[in-house]
Amino acid sequence: RGDDFESSLLSFEKLDRASPDLWPEQLPGVAEFAASCKNPITNSPPKWMAELESEDIEMLKELGSLTTANLMEKVKGLQNLAYQLGLEESREMTRGKFLNILERPKK
Protein backbone atom coordinates (compact mmCIF):
# COMPACT_ATOMS: atom_id res chain seq x y z
CA ARG A 1 0.00 0.00 0.00
CA GLY A 2 2.91 2.37 0.78
CA ASP A 3 4.46 1.62 -2.62
CA ASP A 4 1.26 2.66 -4.38
CA PHE A 5 1.27 5.98 -2.54
CA GLU A 6 4.92 6.66 -3.36
CA SER A 7 4.45 5.75 -7.01
CA SER A 8 1.46 8.10 -7.21
CA LEU A 9 3.79 10.95 -6.20
CA LEU A 10 6.23 10.35 -9.06
CA SER A 11 6.15 12.73 -11.98
CA PHE A 12 7.63 11.95 -15.38
CA GLU A 13 7.20 15.48 -16.67
CA LYS A 14 10.16 16.85 -18.61
CA LEU A 15 11.14 20.39 -17.63
CA ASP A 16 12.62 22.29 -20.55
CA ARG A 17 15.08 24.99 -19.49
CA ALA A 18 14.21 27.01 -22.59
CA SER A 19 10.89 28.02 -21.04
CA PRO A 20 11.05 31.62 -19.72
CA ASP A 21 8.04 30.91 -17.50
CA LEU A 22 9.67 28.01 -15.68
CA TRP A 23 13.21 29.39 -15.68
CA PRO A 24 13.17 33.21 -15.64
CA GLU A 25 16.28 35.22 -16.46
CA GLN A 26 18.80 35.23 -13.63
CA LEU A 27 19.55 38.29 -11.58
CA PRO A 28 22.17 40.58 -13.15
CA GLY A 29 25.65 39.62 -12.04
CA VAL A 30 24.73 36.21 -10.63
CA ALA A 31 26.03 34.27 -13.64
CA GLU A 32 29.40 36.06 -13.48
CA PHE A 33 29.63 35.49 -9.73
CA ALA A 34 28.76 31.81 -10.09
CA ALA A 35 31.34 31.40 -12.84
CA SER A 36 34.01 33.02 -10.66
CA CYS A 37 33.18 30.64 -7.79
CA LYS A 38 33.58 27.49 -9.92
CA ASN A 39 37.34 27.88 -10.05
CA PRO A 40 38.38 29.66 -6.83
CA ILE A 41 42.10 29.19 -7.50
CA THR A 42 43.12 31.84 -10.01
CA ASN A 43 46.30 33.74 -10.64
CA SER A 44 44.67 37.16 -10.86
CA PRO A 45 42.90 38.83 -7.92
CA PRO A 46 39.15 39.55 -8.18
CA LYS A 47 38.04 42.84 -9.77
CA TRP A 48 36.99 44.39 -6.46
CA MET A 49 40.40 43.70 -4.98
CA ALA A 50 42.28 45.43 -7.79
CA GLU A 51 41.06 48.82 -6.56
CA LEU A 52 42.35 48.30 -3.01
CA GLU A 53 45.58 49.85 -1.82
CA SER A 54 48.05 47.99 0.38
CA GLU A 55 46.75 49.81 3.48
CA ASP A 56 43.21 48.60 2.71
CA ILE A 57 44.40 45.01 2.31
CA GLU A 58 46.29 45.19 5.62
CA MET A 59 43.16 46.51 7.35
CA LEU A 60 41.09 43.68 5.84
CA LYS A 61 43.61 41.13 7.11
CA GLU A 62 43.57 42.73 10.56
CA LEU A 63 39.77 42.77 10.74
CA GLY A 64 39.60 39.21 9.41
CA SER A 65 41.87 37.97 12.18
CA LEU A 66 39.73 39.45 14.99
CA THR A 67 37.40 37.32 17.07
CA THR A 68 33.71 38.15 17.02
CA ALA A 69 33.94 39.94 20.36
CA ASN A 70 36.98 41.95 19.25
CA LEU A 71 35.29 42.86 15.97
CA MET A 72 32.19 44.05 17.84
CA GLU A 73 34.43 46.13 20.11
CA LYS A 74 36.10 47.66 17.04
CA VAL A 75 32.70 48.53 15.54
CA LYS A 76 31.57 50.11 18.82
CA GLY A 77 34.76 52.18 18.86
CA LEU A 78 34.09 53.39 15.32
CA GLN A 79 30.50 54.27 16.26
CA ASN A 80 31.73 56.26 19.27
CA LEU A 81 34.31 58.02 17.12
CA ALA A 82 31.64 58.94 14.54
CA TYR A 83 29.37 60.22 17.32
CA GLN A 84 32.16 62.37 18.80
CA LEU A 85 32.95 63.74 15.34
CA GLY A 86 29.27 64.64 14.90
CA LEU A 87 29.24 66.48 18.23
CA GLU A 88 32.38 68.40 17.32
CA GLU A 89 30.95 69.33 13.93
CA SER A 90 27.73 70.50 15.57
CA ARG A 91 29.69 72.72 17.99
CA GLU A 92 31.69 74.23 15.12
CA MET A 93 28.52 74.91 13.12
CA THR A 94 26.91 76.62 16.12
CA ARG A 95 30.06 78.64 16.72
CA GLY A 96 30.10 79.67 13.04
CA LYS A 97 26.49 80.85 13.25
CA PHE A 98 27.24 82.98 16.31
CA LEU A 99 30.24 84.54 14.59
CA ASN A 100 28.25 85.09 11.38
CA ILE A 101 30.85 83.12 9.45
CA LEU A 102 28.35 80.80 7.87
CA GLU A 103 26.16 82.03 5.06
CA ARG A 104 22.48 81.86 5.93
CA PRO A 105 20.00 80.68 3.29
CA LYS A 106 18.12 83.53 1.62
CA LYS A 107 14.35 83.49 1.83
Q: Biggest sheet: strands, sense, closure?
A: none
Order of helices and strands: HHHHH
Low-pLDDT runs = none
How far apart the termini lie comes to: 85 Å
Molecular structure report:
- This protein is mainly α and 107 residues long.
- Helices cover 60% and strands 0% of the residues.
- The protein has helices spanning 2-9, 30-38, 47-50, 54-65, 68-98.
- The chain is elongated and about 85 Å long.
- The mean pLDDT is 79.
The gist of it:
With 107 residues, the protein is mainly α. The protein has helices spanning 2-9, 30-38, 47-50, 54-65, 68-98. Helix content is 60%, strand content 0%.
List keywords for this structure.
107 residues, mainly alpha, 5 helices, elongated
Walk me through the topology.
Elements: H1 2-9, H2 30-38, H3 47-50, H4 54-65, H5 68-98
